[in-house]
């Protein structure tokens, strides 16, 4: 009853094939290609004598090891990635001349990296944080990087404040704590004194900050860009990635426990899904605005702390990205990949969004220190699939061997080659925006409303999501030691909702907000609530708790129904090996109660049976069920396992299927697992 399936994809980016080395069966050599006879012992003067300097293999091996590490990213250090392809559904020729967005059905290789923002490279993955969502399109016109997050807005409006934000959220410098966490004084002090962060903090306190999986979170370009068509007409555009599996999150208690049980939870989920043939799919959507509509809203469309509500500016789905191949080497690909929002192709341009303008400088600047100089574009993962020619030469890590005596423009010795291209021949031309103004360091008045959209977000949440936000504020602000900062935060967010902050004030021991000017926004945006997203059983991980003498006449239909619905089944028992049912059927144990935990699964099915240590088996089952029940997960109980359920603290009710057997399509079980959480469950 082994249910794992693996599909090997042949989708590989052409530019990487030259550099892929399969060396497991090849003779060992030095980096110069010399075959070596010994790799266990260094060259010595006698078996107990000193090591000799002439041992060039020893020196090469140790020197390379000593220099293997490069600086981790200042932000987004903890990341994981995969290869895939983007398929266009509908031509965007009306809006942009970007070549990869012209022909429906055309496919473009992509490389996508997901990440946390605040934590170091070795931190846990299920912390409360923003998630990076960066996609490199290897187009025939050059590489295009869509570099975004899993939240559509940001903490600040102007990039000059980015160092301040990151300094505030990183571990505090006097004691280097806490790691990968915003629940500390300096972050909340920054928030309270930079009120433009209000909207983003609402997202950060929501379930969006603890996604169930990289595969189950939305992605956003965050900034406002431009599409330019062949006629030179421009549209403002925002980018959206919509996961085909819907948008789902962890429970905060569950997220904290996963950090200890499996700090690699998100990367393992991505890796295993692709290895098992459950390829990861996101649809690409765009919001488009004509230039004449730039000022028609009650917010500034260039303000990166604002969304364009989908009810006012619909998202047009134009294509699908499928991630279908894992990386071969995490360092060479995931760590060395260099993204830059300034990597664009003809037909895509920038706006005056002040956060975007700063990003256009910063991304290149950071790669220079991380990747050792200006030639990082020549690393295999960063090389474009199209030819590139220019007069740039030399520098650390240069791989191109440039032939000829000329390395400047203009010239006559090489007939002025390489030469520039006209816009008609595919040359990139910046959009000729009319710009007029005095040099000034100030914020536009249109950027000064910080609370209307924060309240829109709050008004759009379900009751369960609102409760989670209150609990998140209570936890985060409760970790702040300075009582004055706690009070400032409560007073600030009372502008979003007084009742919300009154409850938080009670939880963190400060005064309830007085005389707050609560935003008067009354509308809601249903698109902002996760409760309104797709709910599917596909790839849901189901733990089957089982012992010998299980009833295969009930178990086998459950497993078949689950697999047919796209779920993943894991057989869990007291020890590894083979279990035998009442009728002689066998199943192989995938994990034991010691090696996994309830928080690593989306649903449970208690099959029961007779264990060698029955009392211990009953206790382990109860621990699994109690945890899953407390985290609002679906739980199925076989008829012969009711006695096990009765020894738990769980109560019959929503999401609990007692005496569960299936026939036909097993719709009740499938729909229950697809629901993901049962928030109306009474928790003990």
Count the helices. How many?
Answer: 17
Tell me the distance between the termini: 36 Å
Query: What structural category arises from helix and sheet content?
Result: alpha/beta
Kindly identify the CATH topology of the domain at 79-152 and 210-382: Catalase HpII,  Chain A, domain 1
Overall 3D shape: globular
Under the CATH scheme, the architecture of the domain at 79-152 and 210-382 is Beta Barrel
| Uncertain spans | 1-11
Helix content: 25-40%
What CATH first level of the domain at 79-152 and 210-382 would be assigned? Answer: Mainly Beta
Binding site for heme: 73, 113, 162, 359, 363, 370
Pfam families: Catalase, Catalase-rel, Catalase_C
Protein name: Catalase
Keywords: Heme, Hydrogen peroxide, Iron, Metal-binding, Oxidoreductase, Peroxidase
Task: Characterize the structure shown.
It catalyses: 2 H2O2 = O2 + 2 H2O. The structure is a single chain. This protein is of the alpha/beta class and 684 residues long. Among the domains are: 79-152 and 210-382, Beta Barrel (Catalase HpII,  Chain A, domain 1); 453-531, Catalase, four-helical domain (Hemocyanin, N-terminal domain, Up-down Bundle); 535-675, Rossmann fold (3-Layer(aba) Sandwich). Helix content is 25%, strand content 16%. It is built from 17 helices and 18 strands. The protein is globular and about 90 Å long. Residues 1-11 have low confidence and may be disordered.
């Amino acid at each position: 009853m082994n249910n794992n399936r693996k599909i090997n994809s042949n989708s590989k980016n052409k530019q990487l094939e030259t550099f892929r080395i399969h060396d497991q069966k090849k003779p060992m050599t030095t980096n110069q290609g010399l075959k070596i006879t010994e790799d266990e012992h260094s060259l010595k003067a006698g078996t107990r004598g000193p090591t000799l300097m002439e041992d060039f293999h020893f020196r090469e091996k140790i020197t390379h090891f000593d220099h293997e590490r490069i600086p981790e990213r200042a932000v987004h250090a903890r990341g994981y990635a995969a290869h895939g392809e983007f398929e266009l559904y509908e031509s965007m020729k009306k809006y942009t001349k970007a070549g990869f967005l012209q022909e429906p059905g055309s496919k473009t290789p992509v490389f996508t990296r997901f990440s946390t923002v605040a934590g170091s490279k070795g931190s846990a993955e299920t912390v409360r944080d923003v998630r990076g969502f960066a996609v490199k399109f290897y187009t025939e016109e050059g590489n295009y990087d869509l570099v975004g997050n899993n939240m559509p807005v940001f903490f600040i409006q102007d990039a000059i404040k980015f160092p301040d934000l990151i300094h505030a959220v990183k571990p505090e410098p006097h004691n280097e704590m806490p790691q990968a966490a915003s629940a500390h004084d300096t972050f909340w002090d920054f928030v309270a004194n930079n009120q433009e962060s209000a909207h983003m903090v609402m997202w950060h306190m929501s379930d969006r900050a603890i996604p169930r999986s990289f595969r189950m979170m939305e992605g956003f370009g965050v900034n406002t860009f431009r599409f330019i068509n062949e006629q030179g007409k421009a549209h403002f555009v925002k980018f959206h990635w919509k996961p085909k599996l819907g948008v789902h999150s962890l429970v905060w208690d569950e997220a904290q426990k996963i950090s200890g049980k499996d700090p690699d939870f998100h990367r393992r989920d991505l890796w295993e899904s692709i290895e098992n043939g459950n390829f990861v799919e996101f649809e690409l959507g765009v919001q488009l605005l004509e230039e004449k509509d730039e000022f028609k809203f009650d917010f500034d469309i260039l303000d990166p702390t604002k969304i364009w509500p989908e009810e006012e500016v619909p998202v047009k789905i134009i294509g699908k990205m499928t991630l279908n191949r894992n990386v071969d080497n995490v360092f060479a690909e995931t760590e060395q990949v260099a993204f830059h929002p300034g990597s664009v192709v003809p037909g895509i341009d920038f706006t005056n969004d002040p956060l975007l303008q700063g990003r256009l400088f910063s991304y290149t600047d950071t790669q220079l220190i991380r990747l050792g100089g200006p030639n990082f574009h020549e690393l295999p993962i960063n090389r474009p699939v199209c030819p590139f020619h220019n007069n740039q030469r030399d520098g650390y890590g240069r791989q191109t061997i440039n032939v000829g005596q000329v390395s400047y423009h203009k010239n006559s010795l090489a007939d002025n080659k390489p030469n520039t291209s006209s816009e008609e021949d595919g040359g990139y031309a910046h959009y000729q925006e009319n710009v007029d103004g005095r040099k000034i360091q100030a914020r536009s008045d249109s950027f000064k409303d910080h609370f209307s959209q924060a309240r829109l977000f709050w008004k759009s949440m379900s009751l369960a999501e609102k409760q989670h936000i209150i609990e998140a504020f209570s936890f985060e602000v409760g970790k702040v030691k300075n009582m004055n900062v706690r009070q400032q935060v409560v007073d600030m967010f009372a502008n979003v909702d007084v009742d919300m902050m009154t409850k938080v004030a009670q939880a963190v021991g400060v005064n309830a907000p007085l005389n707050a000017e609560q935003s008067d926004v009354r509308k809601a945006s249903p698109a902002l609530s996760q409760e309104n997203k797709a709910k599917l059983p596909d790839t849901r991980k189901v733990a089957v708790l089982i012992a010998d003498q299980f009833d295969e006449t009930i178990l086998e239909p459950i497993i078949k129904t689950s697999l047919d619905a796209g779920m993943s089944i894991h057989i869990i028992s007291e020890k590894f090996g083979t279990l035998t049912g009442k009728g002689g059927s066998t199943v192989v144990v995938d994990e034991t109660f010691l090696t996994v935990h309830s928080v690593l699964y989306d649903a449970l099915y208690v099959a029961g049976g007779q264990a060698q240590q029955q009392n211990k088996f009953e206790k382990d089952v109860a621990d699994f069920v109690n945890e899953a029940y407390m985290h609002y997960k679906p739980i199925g109980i076989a008829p012969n396992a009711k006695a096990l359920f009765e020894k738990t603290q769980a109560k019959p009710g929503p999401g609990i299927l007692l005496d569960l057997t299936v026939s036909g399509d097993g719709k009740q079980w499938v729909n229950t697992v697809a629901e993901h959480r049962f928030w109306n469950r009474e928790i003990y």
